[in-house]
Amino acid sequence: MSAPLRRLALATLCLLAAAACQSRQPATRAGETIDRAGTQTGQALGRAANSTGQALERAGHWMQRRTE
Asked: Is the entire prediction scored with pTM above 0.70?
């Protein structure tokens, strides 16, 4: 299971646990945890997309040099 998928599963469990709580404080903490997990997942996906784009750019330059 990939890290973003694990974070999503953890966030879902936290959300379910928050729904079962009667106090607002655990729900607030769970919400903050879910928000943090979402932010970290978004950042990881952004870095992966940037890395992929850079790799494709390098491959394109390599092909261009080979065909000149």
From this structure: no
